[in-house]
Amino acid sequence: MAKSNIHYWLAVHLIPRLSLRKKRQLVEQIGLTTLFEHSPALSVLPLTERQRLALLTPNWSEIDRIIADAQAAGAVIIGFDDARYPSQLKQIYDPPLVLFARGNTDLLQKTQLAIVGSRNCTINGREIAYQFAEKLASYDLVITSGLALGIDAFAHQGALASSGNTIAVTATGIDITYPARHRQLVNDIVVKGGLILSEFLPKTVAKKGHFPRRNRIISGLAQGVLVVEAKIKSGSLITAKMALEQNRDVFAVPGSICNEMASGCHALIKQGAKLVTEVADIMNELAIEFPEVNTKEDHASKKECEKTNDQGLLNDALLASVGDEITPIDVVVSRTQLPIEEVLSRLTVLELRGLVAAVPGGYLKLTRG
User: Fold this and answer.
1) Hey, which residues does 358 pair with through a beta bridge?
2) Domain ranges, residue 145
3) Does 150 share its domain with 192?
4) Residue (of 105, 149, 113, 155) closest to 130 by Cα position
5) For 323-344, how does the pLDDT look when each residue is reduced to its tens digit (9 = 90+)?
6) Contact of 323 with 89, CB cutoff 8 Å
7) 23 with 15: CB under 8 angstroms?
8) Is the domain of 341 the same as that of 225?
9) Residue 316: inside a domain, yes or no?
10) Which helix (H) or strand (E) segment is 92 a member of?
11) Cα(13)–Cα(119) distance, rounded to whole angstroms?
């Protein structure tokens, strides 16, 4: 049976112990199919015997199995010369030679912003990730992230709540969901017009070394990377570093100096990352125009009514005593000098209006959209 370009790209991918960059150079110098035609040029190439053997006698049966596994998972395989291969990703030092994609591959050609952050994020962090992703996706940006717990998941969910424009780059094969609890999220992404993407062969399980490789793709696909929450030593900061090396913009959301989860963002800002407090900060930096948005009159009236009704609560001294970080109830009592019964009663009202949240250890002020 005749071999397709994907057969040959997978054969190049399977050459042992040879960097992606050198594999791509081989294809550029010799030609994709010519590499496997027993060309005399092979004898002078700086290859080991195992590498030369992989070109002379590729394991076509294994390659057929890889293709079948991808098809069984509902995925397509995109070779480096495929028109669907994202041009942005080709610019990085070591782009994958093949990508496994499940879902809407049209997203690969759209402008993307990566949103990353801590797995153990705060309530405030997850709200910021969700709200930024929802708003940016409504402006037809694609939100790209890594399907991890915490900030990644809320970024994907925010985009799904808007346009569905989100890409999840995984550290496993396209047929494996990691973490397993995100099976429903993966399904939602595919069903609602998003995309699952991986460079790893089907049946590849998650390993520690896979995550930095995944991170370079997340940053490589995007015009910029927004870090919502991150510790000084975290995968999110590795992604930000990769973004800088790839000449991408880096954005960071500031937080309290008492919040360890904000320490990485503060370090990035000190190093020159763009401080972000609203969506416009990102849109302006990326030189993306805000599209015309037709807002229904009844929706505008409802929002105006909510603002009027909430004005007294927003100016409430008790609300002011609750911080952006977890504030213990005894601290609220101390700051307001009110009886604890009244404090609890008024906090309940604020909670019902979505202005504060009861969390382990006290209360947290919520950001109003």
Assistant:
1) 363
2) 105-285
3) yes
4) 155
5) 878 889 898 888 888 888 888 8
6) no
7) yes
8) no
9) yes
10) none
11) 32
Taking all residues of the chain, what is their mean pLDDT, rounded to a whole number? 90
Among 164, 157, 161, 158, smallest CA distance to 140 is for 164
- Write the single-letter amino acid at 284: N
Q: Where are the beta strands (DSSP E) in 253-361?
A: 274-275, 356-359
Residue 344, domain member (yes or no): yes
Per-residue pLDDT of 77-122, as tens digits, reads 999 999 999 999 999 999 999 999 999 999 999 999 999 999 999 8
Q: At 330, list the tokens.
A: 């005894």
Using a pLDDT cut of 90, give the percent of the chain over it: 69
Residue 297 phi, psi dihedral angles, 5° rounding: -60, -40
Co-location of 276 and 304 in the same domain: no
Residue showing tokens 């940053």: 219
pLDDT > 70? residue 295 = no
- Which tokens in the block code for residue 131? 């709200």
Placement of tokens 């996706």 in the chain: 137
Beta-bridge mates of residue 113: 143, 224
pLDDT tens-digit readout, 229-283: 999 989 999 999 999 999 999 999 998 888 888 999 999 999 999 999 999 999 9
**C-alpha dist (Å) from residue 115 to 137, 257, 282:** 12, 21, 12
Q: What is the pTM of this model?
A: 0.82
